[in-house]
Every structure is written in C-alpha cells, then in structure tokens.
Description:
- By secondary structure, the protein is α+β, with helices and mostly antiparallel strands.
- Helices cover 52% and strands 18% of the residues.
- Strands 1-2-3 form a three-stranded antiparallel β-sheet, covered by helices on one side.
- Helix 2 (15-59) runs antiparallel to helix 4 (78-95).
- The longest helix has 45 residues, at 15-59.
Amino acid sequence: MTKTRAEKGRSEKGFFTIWVLGLCMCLFMIGGISLDLWRGFSDRRQLAAMTDAAAVAAASQIDLTAFRSQPSRLELNQEDARKRATDYMTAEATASNLQLTGLEVKVNGPVVQVIAKKKLDMTLTRILVPNKDIDVSTTSAAEARLGGQ
C-alpha cells in the first residue's frame, strides 16, 4: 500500500492560497497594462481629432492679397495659419486638460501640417518599466481649396 503525501509528512496546507494569490497578481498586472494601453489609444484619438481640427482651421487662413492678384494660385497667410492652429491647439488642450509636450505647425503654399506630441500618463506600467516614457504623436494636414475644386 502506498502512502499519500500527508502520510509521508508533507503538508499541502496553504498551497491553494499561494496559487490564487499569484494568479491575482498576474491578473492585476494584465489589467493595469490594458488600462494604460486603453488610455494611450484614447489620448491618441483625442490628439488626432484636435490636430485634424487645427489643420482645417489653419487652412482657412487664405492670403487674400495673393489670391486677388492671382486667383489661380491659392496660398495661405503663413503667420495667420500658424497662429490659428497654435491658438486652437492651446485652447483645446487647456479645455480637455491635455498637456502637450510639443506642437509644430508647417505651412507650405496651400498646405498646412500640424504635428502634436504628448507623454502618456502611465499607472502600473510605470511600476513595471521605470524610467521609460511613452510618447504619442499625431500629424494632420489640410489643404486650402476653392469651392469647386
């Protein structure tokens, strides 16, 4: 007749508790990482919507003097376009409590490009991977066009 572990002097009391505790820790880490990942997707989507709107707003700043002298050539007033995009992004970032780490507006003829950057605010991922910043950036472009084009 063979002896069981309990009969041999080995007690398995507490094994299940340790196993469940380890499983809970793994689920906690996976949940925290997924929460940070979801926050990253959400912040990027919000940043992309803001840069899209800023690019469209800046593309409305047509240089009227150049347009009146040559209607077939459409150009943007570079200073006004940059100011419009920057003002829009600043106002939206303040209203949505979004802290931008970088903002760049490029104007080339009738095309305006808005590039915005933000650092993600991590929770559990910061504990698992310290001293590692994760940046989110989006680029949006818009082109000024006449009504029928």
